[in-house]
UniProtKB/TrEMBL annotation:
Stated role: NDH-1 shuttles electrons from an unknown electron donor, via FMN and iron-sulfur (Fe-S) centers, to quinones in the respiratory and/or the photosynthetic chain. The immediate electron acceptor for the enzyme in this species is believed to be plastoquinone. Couples the redox reaction to proton translocation, and thus conserves the redox energy in a proton gradient. Cyanobacterial NDH-1 also plays a role in inorganic carbon-concentration.
Lineage: Bacteria, Bacillati, Cyanobacteriota, Cyanophyceae, Oscillatoriophycideae
First-tier enzyme category under EC: translocase
Family per similarity comment: Belongs to the complex I NdhN subunit family.
Quaternary assembly: NDH-1 can be composed of about 15 different subunits; different subcomplexes with different compositions have been identified which probably have different functions.
UniProt key word NADP: yes
Protein name: NAD(P)H-quinone oxidoreductase subunit N
InterPro entries membership: NAD(P)H-quinone_OxRdtase_su_N
Catalysis performed (reactions): a plastoquinone + NADPH + (n+1) H(+)(in) = a plastoquinol + NADP(+) + n H(+)(out); a plastoquinone + NADH + (n+1) H(+)(in) = a plastoquinol + NAD(+) + n H(+)(out)
Intracellular or extracellular location(s): Cellular thylakoid membrane
Topology versus the membrane: Peripheral membrane protein
GO cellular component: plasma membrane-derived thylakoid membrane
């Protein structure tokens, strides 16, 4: 890998396909350089982990209910059996609504993507087609050098 990389090929492929799966060196650092290149090219970036996401579609694009953790206190007959439910706005839609006018779009950078199922990867592949201002990058595993591939190809292979 070159010591200094421009990231032009990565950005071009991301804009073309909309969703990429990446494999990064395990010692880290290279993904930060590519995130910086995306920000310099006019994109806003939002990082999140794939572990514990639940329903990805609801989390990213729909208002959804969240139950707070049980802390030992019980409300007998006052609320739902799971406790109080709070409704939170969708993450991606909220970020899109608050983008600066000069921004090209939103990059969803998802780490620990190896836990995602085939259906979830297919949804992430189709998300940029539903909302063209969203691009998706999923970290899927380790490699000796930074490499990327279309998420569509990866989802078909899983």
């Amino acid at each position: 890998m070159a010591l200094l990389t421009t990231g032009k090929g990565f950005i071009r492929d991301l804009e073309k396909s909309g969703a990429l799966g990446i494999f990064t060196p395990l010692e880290g650092g290279s993904e930060g350089r590519y995130q910086r290149r995306l920000r310099l090219n006019g994109y806003d970036s939002f990082s999140l982990t794939a572990k514990g996401l639940g329903d990805i579609e609801a989390y990213l694009t729909k208002v959804h209910g969240v139950s707070v953790p049980h802390l030992g206190k019980k409300n007998i007959g006052q609320e739902a059996a799971v406790g109080p439910i709070y409704f939170v706005p969708p993450v991606a839609t909220y970020k899109l609504d608050n983008l600066s006018p000069k921004s090209k779009g939103l990059i969803l950078w998802i780490i620990e993507g190896h836990v995602l199922s085939r259906d979830e990867l297919e949804y992430l592949t189709n998300l940029p087609h539903q909302e063209p201002r969203i691009k998706v990058v999923v970290e899927l595993g380790g490699e000796r050098y930074f490499r990327w591939e279309s998420l569509e190809k990866i989802a078909q292979a899983v």
